Amino acid sequence: MVTATATRPVGDLLRDWRRRRRLSQLELSNEAGISTRHLSFLETGRARPSRDMVLRLTERLDVPLRDRNGLLMAAGFAPVYRERSIDSPEMRPARQALNRVLDGHEPYPALVVDRLWNLVMANEAAMLFLEGLPEDLVRPPINIHRLALHPRGLAARAVNLPEVRAHLVARMARQVALTGDPQLTALHEETRAYGGGDDDGPHEPSHDIALPTRLRYDDQVLAFFSTVTTFGTAEDVTLAELAIEAFFPADDETAAFLRRRAEARHG
User: Fold this and answer.
1) Are 244 and 98 a contacting pair, CB within 8 Å?
2) In degrees rounded to 5, what are phi and psi of residue 78?
3) pLDDT per residue as tens digits for the range 235-251
4) Which of 3, 18, 55, 63 is the most buried (most CB within 10 A)?
5) DSSP secondary structure string for all residues of 74-86
6) Cα-flanking dihedrals φ and ψ of residue 83, to 5°?
7) Domain 89-265, CATH 3.30.450.180 — does that match?
8) What's this model's pTM, rounded to 2 decimal places?
9) Which CATH code of 3.30.450.40, 1.20.210.10, 1.10.260.40, 3.40.50.720 fits the domain covering 4-74?
10) What number of CA atoms fall less than 13 Å from residue 154's CA on the CB side?
11) What share of the chain is helix, strand, coil (3-state, %, to 5)?
């Protein structure tokens, strides 16, 4: 499935993506190895791009695979990139690889999300984040971004909520700016409204590297930081849109708690 961009002229779409990447026509034409005049003609519709030209320009613009298919269709060509369900037989090797990553991260939480931050897969340790939350928030499809910021979700447990909220809101804002995805935009607007948006606290650049998230569980505060891994070389739309978020203990007490919890699960 591709986005609904195929109803717009391909030149308009190319111009939108160039502007989203903050490139001038001269800069993009230099990167793509074409003349500025030709690029201008493509954007205004005075010239029709070839299939190879669409692929060349969308690669230089780092357009997501889903939207590359949309631009190809707008130019009159068939989509190039396949989109298969993660549960399809053809995706079994990918599922196995993802499971190895998740299992290998035990006893620490790790999960796989799609482009909209919907939960796709998770290891046993990650179930900690779902325990005791309202049923409507943990009913599939579970949206991790919503779960983190909803007042009845993990936000109710976060000791350092203003910092966490500012970081997550800023991260989503960057994704919206890079992709222009209307569904991401709607999710961003929804979750910003939970806590008043940008008034909740400043976003510190250092938080992009390691922001501890402190969550209260009973009489203990657990501290985590996380890393996000994406598949930059994937040629399948589904795989290209998946991300692994791996959580690590930010202190010795949290690490010991997670080890004890894993030992109790496995006897």
Assistant:
1) yes
2) -75, 150
3) 899 999 999 999 999 99
4) 63
5) HTT----SB---T
6) -130, 105
7) yes
8) 0.87
9) 1.10.260.40
10) 29
11) 55, 15, 35
